[in-house]
Automatic annotation (TrEMBL):
InterPro entries: ARM-like (IPR011989), ARM-type_fold (IPR016024), CLASP_N_dom (IPR024395). Pfam families: CLASP_N. The gene is TOGARAM1. GO terms for molecular function: microtubule binding. GO terms for cellular component: cilium; cytoplasmic microtubule. SUPFAM superfamilies: ARM repeat. Residues 17-161 form the CLASP N-terminal domain. One of its GO terms (biological process) is microtubule cytoskeleton organization. This is TOG array regulator of axonemal microtubules protein 1-like. The lineage of its organism: Eukaryota, Metazoa, Chordata, Craniata, Vertebrata.
Amino acid sequence: MEFNRPRLSVLLLLSPLSQVKNLRSIVSRDAITTMAHLFTHLQHNMDSEVEGAAHTLLHKAGETSLFIRQGVELALSTMVHHCSPGRVLRGLLDGGLRHRNRLSRATTALSLVRLLQVVGVSRVLTGRKNLASEFIPAVSTLAFDADQNVRAHARAALRYLGSHKDAERAVEKYVQLRDQSQVKKLLHN
């Protein structure tokens, strides 16, 4: 019997995704680790499930248990490294940009920094698929978050973006006028 690989990835992900929400922490942690393995081994075949998985993982990142949060960071990191950048970006922004929990927003900001490092500044700013229109406003919003960890990760991403010659032009194009001067200062700090 031959399996269609994308269809198989959907079937493989449904069970761990539902178990991430399990109240037993060891079951949840094992499901999170399984998701990390699925992202590693199935890579772009998991693209169709990235947004739902990111939403679920970022929700779980808000828990106080350190080993759960470390597992979530591992799973999100493997997702960033092995899946399509556009889908990963949409999943991170939909799942964590406006999340009420500060730990979820901090994990989102950290994952955005990792995405920027994996994809590269020039591809974000000038690539065929214009990631800048979603990435720069999101990082700019997180750079002024109430939580210090969220701000630190987002400002690191802005400093990293500031190394590119087109960064200021992108900020002028995608950031609201009232925030542009503050964001430009963060690009050069």
